[in-house]
Amino acid sequence: MTPDRDLNLNLPVLGSLAQHEASALSNYATEYGSRGYMRENTTALAWREEGKITLGNYPPVHPTETIRASRQRRPSEMRYYHLGTGIEGEKAWAVSTVMTRQNFVPSADGTGMVHALIPLWDMCNHTNGQLTTTFSPELDRSECTACRSYSAGDQIFIFYGSRSNADLFVHNGFVFGDNHHDSMRLKLGVSKADPLQAERAKLLSRLGLPTTGEFYLKTGADPVDGRLLAFLRVFSMRQEHLEHWLDSERSSDLVYPDCALETDVETKTWNFLHTRIKLLLSAYPTTMLDDLDQLNKGGLALCRRLAIQMRVSEKKILHGAIDYVEQRLLACGHPSSNN
């Protein structure tokens, strides 16, 4: 925040404009000391009866130390920020804290966006919900409304946005166990050596899809993103199918699971995805049970625990997608050929 802007402590929660794409909030407030720059105390915002906020000790959702550790593992990044590979302690913590808490707010003249630090808002932990932060040009301040009702002593949460655990892990330094917006990226492409590459590219272009790009598997009951499904269907078509859908006015239906599609194309689509997911799961050095066993035993270093939690998050998506794909194959009358 700029020095000439007021900090209104009567707001339910303070925050910045919800466009913190540069890096968002680590939201783990630590007690700073000259010899102990990372202490065990964790501070978050709590609601007071009189309608103001106060500080309280709660378990951290995501420790800032993770961000600091990731900086230490990337010497090139540390040199970029003029830290040097040998700098540790308070300076490393301070720089990583600032770099992971940048937010955008409108400039004073309203012509653009400027970086801002908003420490009070930064103490709020993440939860599922919706963005409730805006910027008021009239009052020249950021405003964040409560995402639910709070009682005295309750910790105040905010929603960081529709981010996967991979994004939260890299940019915020934590893994959110019940992330309703979790997803996993898949890189797919049509080979230039494919004899039907031109036809596939034309149909994909009509659907607004690239011939090579990133697609997503999601958490929840419908894990196959519509863009991914349409790409795989086009990828699985023979020439006669491609010609049919290029001539069809309903080609946009290819993004929907229940699109009226030839059974052999549908079967090939789901079998391909089933094989790809199995390959991804086989690439992990551990099973889901192994990971859960390590987490339950305890005694793990903080960063290692987060890495295993991230691995579990990915595997949950993949296992959920496997179950979904197998159900789709059964609906086609063709159990998975990989079982």
UniProtKB/TrEMBL annotation:
Transmembrane segments: none annotated. It catalyses: L-histidyl-[protein] + S-adenosyl-L-methionine = N(tele)-methyl-L-histidyl-[protein] + S-adenosyl-L-homocysteine + H(+). Its EC number is 2.1.1.85. Residues 192-318 form the Rubisco LSMT substrate-binding domain. One of its GO terms (biological process) is methylation. PANTHER family: ACTIN-HISTIDINE N-METHYLTRANSFERASE, UNCHARACTERIZED PUTATIVE METHYLTRANSFERASE. This is protein-histidine N-methyltransferase. It comes from Timema tahoe.
